[in-house]
Write a structure and sequence with these properties.
Elements: H1 4-21, H2 28-35, H3 39-45, H4 49-69, H5 78-95, H6 97-107, H7 110-121, H8 128-138, H9 147-166, H10 174-188
Helix pairs in contact: 1-2, 1-4, 1-6, 2-3, 4-5, 5-8, 5-9, 5-10, 6-9, 9-10
Length: 190
Amino acid sequence: MIKPEKRDEIIRAAMELIAEHGFHGAPMALVAERAGVAAGTIYRYFESKDDLIRETHAFLEGQLLAALTEAYPAGQSVRQRFLHIERKIIEYFIAEPMEFRFMEQFFDSPFGVAHRREKLFGNKEKNIIFKLFEEALAQGIIKELPLPVLCALAFGPLVDVCRDHILEFIVLDDPLIEQISAACWDSLKR
């Protein structure tokens, strides 16, 4: 019988090791040791290291989506919903620096490129962010730019400020988070 908590321990160990040492610095034997399982046990849950990496990302993406949808202001304006998402992303990543570092590693790798390509150009169901962009474009509220450019303007700065907060170059308090979120909105609005 497969125990979900054992799978979660393996994912957590992989996330931590990859965040700390990169993909090559996180061999399966070390992941197993950190998770407190035998190396062969990992293969009961994951077909390969690549599968473990993708599943770790999917798990963290689910955690982030849950944070974004918590108290989501569904009936409010596009701007208010956008600012909510921006704030939640910043708050989540500064509260979870290890997860942030894993996501940076993931998106700067071939895994992340393939994932982004599928999200941006594939036929998968649109997520909350893409739906918001579609609504804003349909209403003529934001600039008509390709989706990758909209994402870069909206979220690229968040990566930098979260990284700078984690590195203690800046302190992201509530007023500064509000200003950053508004600045990202200003870069998109018509």
